Amino acid sequence: MQKGLLIIFSGPSGVGKGTIIREIMKFPELKLTYSISMTTRAPREGEIDGVNYFFVTKESFLQHLYNDDFLEHACFVDNYYATPKAYVEKMRNEGYNVILEIETVGAKQVMNVMKDDEGCISIFLVPPSLEELERRIRGRKSESEEVIQKRIAKAELEMQETFRYKYVVCNRNIKKTVQKVYDIIHDEMQKKAMD
């Protein structure tokens, strides 16, 4: 059985990452699975350990960190989050292509850890323009002006990181973007099969 790919998927908030991933997961031939993160935060209603997250205590998390068990880790609002190496490797060894939807800071950590791994690819999703991104964020009608401005400023910084990624895809049209991402993953699977 061919070992699966690790697919790093990044892009600014509002660019459509969730939508593209949901659509791309519908193709069984791509054998995609989502990476499950470990966190110290409490489960929300309906969340299941080992499905939504691996929920652990802070002590357990810090022990894993000390043991170098993570591809990347970060702290948000007093809770830790990380991508466990063992889970990602287990899924890849079972032939799954693992999608890791992650911010640029975490992506940089993963790329450093995985630099010698030929099965690691990175895709950065960009909007047609910052104006279009702002329009999409405002269209959600779910955030204050202050939060919108922070998201735009963060997007500008994140877009300066695109040079680190193997592929940069512009999300102008959902159907065409899904096709482009499909083609990238399919081509990478074919290349890996020929190795």
Structural class: alpha/beta
* Beta-strand content estimate: 15-25%
In helices, the fraction of residues equals 40-55%
Strands side by side in the biggest sheet: 2-7-1-8-9
> CATH class, please?
Alpha Beta
Counting copies of identical and different chains, the oligomeric state is single chain
The residue ranges in which pLDDT falls below 50 over 5 or more consecutive positions are none
What does this structure look like?
Strands 2-7-1-8-9 form a five-stranded parallel beta sheet, with helices on both faces. It contains seven helices and nine strands. It has one domain (6-194): Rossmann fold (3-Layer(aba) Sandwich), CATH 3.40.50. 42% of the residues lie in helices and 21% in strands. It is globular and about 45 Å long.
Keywords:
five-stranded parallel beta sheet; four-stranded mixed beta sheet; 7 helices; alpha/beta; 195 residues; 9 strands; Rossmann fold; single chain
